[in-house]
Amino acid sequence: MLRSHTCGQLRSSNIGQEVTLCGWVDTSRDHGGTIFLDLRDRYGKTQCVVNPDSGAEFLEVAKKLRGEDVALVKGLVHARLEGKDNQKLSTGDIEIRASEIRLLNRSKTPPFFPNQPELPGEDLRLKYRYIDLRREAMQRTLMLRSQIIKAMRDYFEQHDFVDVETPILGRSTPEGARDYLVPSRVHWGHFFALPQSPQLYKQILMVAGYDRYIQVARCFRDEDLRADRQPEFTQLDLEMSFVDSNDVISMIDGLMKKLAKDLLGLELELPLPRMTYDEAVRRFGSDAPDLRFGMEIVDCTEFARQSAFRVFSGAAEAGGYIRGIKVDRRAEEFSRKRIDELTEFVKHDFGAKGLAWFRVETDGSLWSPISKNVEPEIQLQFQQAFDARPGDLILLLADSWDVTCKGLNGLRRRLGAELKLYDSKQMHFSWVVEFPMFEKDEAEERWVAMHHPFTAPRPQDMQLLQTAPQTCRAQAYDLVINGYEAGGGTIRIHDSDTQQVVFDLLGITPDMAADRFGFLLDALRFGAPPHGGIALGIDRIVMLFGGLDNIRDCIAFPKTQRAMDLMTAAPGTVETKQLHELHVQVETPPVKN
RNA sequence: GGGGCCGUAGCUCAAUUGGUUAGAGCACUGGACUGUCGAUCCAGAGGUUGCGGGUUCGAGCCCCGUCGGCCUCGCCA
């Protein structure tokens, strides 16, 4: 060990000790006869003083040190001179009077410095990730991530869970996200798929009697990226036997309480609030509502349809809805230009036909460019429906159910952030439960599983599978934190007959099922216990607990939006020989013009 | 696949809206300085304005294409 202490360790209680520190040169302040070096490692910074007492030889070494050089300093811990302490540093009461200083390794001038005030461009940060990871903010986040995973493991160990690893090389399953494929060398024309989640394996583990399973599992989905989506991400995967929805939810409630307390010092009230999917969509237009603020959706279809104003009546006649949200007391902050921007936003991003709005005047009446088109009695109903007060702004969409949901959810989230309707440190945890079993595939006339094909319907909805699948609700539950889906799970189907009924509905024939999931259907016939589970998105949880706005900052080596690793330049080409071995040919790309 | 924002010195940004020699701070190089902590002071070096084409007497600025980063819709059971 070259060092005796870390750079964040020494305090006034160490005064008088001889110590050796190693680290990166954070800054150096050269006064000619005296040089101050701040040595940095992931634990902190310590000021080291080099002067003629250290020896002329070492003064020369210190003079040549530059930022990010790696150095070793040996010396006595001294109290700072009177009034020269630095309260910004945890080690600011002391300094090291160097008796020896060594350059362990020179650094080229880096493209950016970990301590520079302005954040460099993200492409540069990703290319030189080893320098970016020296930044205090990145180190804090990665340590938070480590603590969160440790707390999760501790919690589940206390509850008798077994950590089991499942294969990374598996088989492609139909439906779901696009798979990352790995060609088999041994089996011509056959491919492994990287797991989108360990779903089937953990169900098999339940059949095998490992009644409480967890895994910190890497998952892969070859879909387009977002601020909160990476092609490879990490889940805390969990499955339990002999449980219902309530048991799984309670188990995770306990985990969230522990995480909030241990890492944020927050006391959560249990049980965490729960809301059905239908209620969430009705009140907030989203299955992952941000409940840090109100601004609930008001449905005005019943009375607005009676207006002669075609925007309203036409939408209602077409089977659509007139729904809206209200900005409390801040209409004066909404210029025509700003409202035009919001209109463009809902039209462009969510396909809305337009955005209708009313401003509430001091006498309580409504004003809008469309006021003259909307009958006074209908306007009165809007006032009552929204409990309109002077200064309020009412924003309305008249469109299909889907467009009103997406558009109002989009508006609500955007306005919540722009108007700062919540404190940035605020955290809101809740559950959304009882999702539909199926949704209609847009293009084709067929049902697709909303969660996955192994999800069990609610017992009371079992007959609906045959009669009215669209109304059938699942034993499904999503954990929602600040408007993000932080996790989701279901109780699974544990008998092969029900599983086959669901497959039928999804258009998966017995032959296909046997081919793709035969092993699961077999397993279900060999004594499968009732079981269910959940998967938590660890990257997102770290992001939310760390108060960050993207998951790249929670991952040591993330990919860009175009799914590249800028540091290693992956993906890259391979030798023709490798392709031959794998029996893979690469198509010639189309010529662009 | 669609839409949007961005790309100027190593880094972060500016450039009077199309005008002739593209600037600043930090970093870098050299020098001065024994108590700084974003040290200070003096001097210096540093540019294919992402790339390619076009419009123009003239382009960092306008147009087209392209590459890269980010945001977003679709997509993500």
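Chain A has a mean pLDDT of 95.
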